[in-house]
Automatic annotation (TrEMBL):
It is found in: Cell membrane. Belongs to the ExbD/TolR family. Its main location: membrane. The chain crosses the membrane at residues 20-38. It is a single-pass membrane protein; Single-pass type II membrane protein. One of its GO terms (biological process) is protein transport. It comes from Kangiella spongicola. This is Biopolymer transporter ExbD. The keyword Metal-binding does not apply.
Length: 139
């Protein structure tokens, strides 16, 4: 009689995990289907390399320099420029020589949004490669 009682206790304590696994798989499928993936925009920046040729080319194109100071003010050719007017100024200088490279000098205290705007404006002006450099000031 005791053996029957033990078998009955063991049968009563067994839990069927199948319904719980079904619910987990249904939830997993739901989350996979409803998930939206966001593609983030990126900016291509040219980094300096150590393998650069040291001989200057003959008849080099003029360099277009966009400077951003510590207060996030934008300067081109020693004059203050609105960040949204960078494209027009670069297009004007590219009309003189379309080979002209663009250098964005940025102070370490400048707001990153102004740097991104300057690079975007240069790219939309038709410049294929925009170089970024740190603006070092003499104290």
């Amino acid at each position: 009689m005791r053996s029957k009682r033990r078998n009955r206790d063991e049968d009563e304590t067994a839990i069927d995990m199948t319904p719980m696994l079904d619910i987990v798989f249904i939830m997993l499928i739901f989350f996979i289907v409803t998930t939206s993936f966001v593609k983030e925009d990126t900016i291509e920046l040219a980094r300096p390399t150590t393998n650069q040729d040291t001989t200057p080319p003959k008849n080099p194109p003029p360099l277009i320099v966009v400077s951003i100071d510590g207060q996030s003010n934008v300067f081109m050719n020693e004059r203050s420029v609105d960040p949204e007017a960078i494209r027009a100024n670069i297009e004007t200088q590219l009309a003189v020589d379309p080979r002209s490279p663009v250098l964005v000098r940025v102070h370490e205290d400048a707001v990153n949004e102004v740097l991104v705007t300057a690079v975007d404006q240069a790219n939309s002006a038709g410049v294929s490669k925009v170089n970024v450099a740190r603006w070092v000031t003499a104290d």
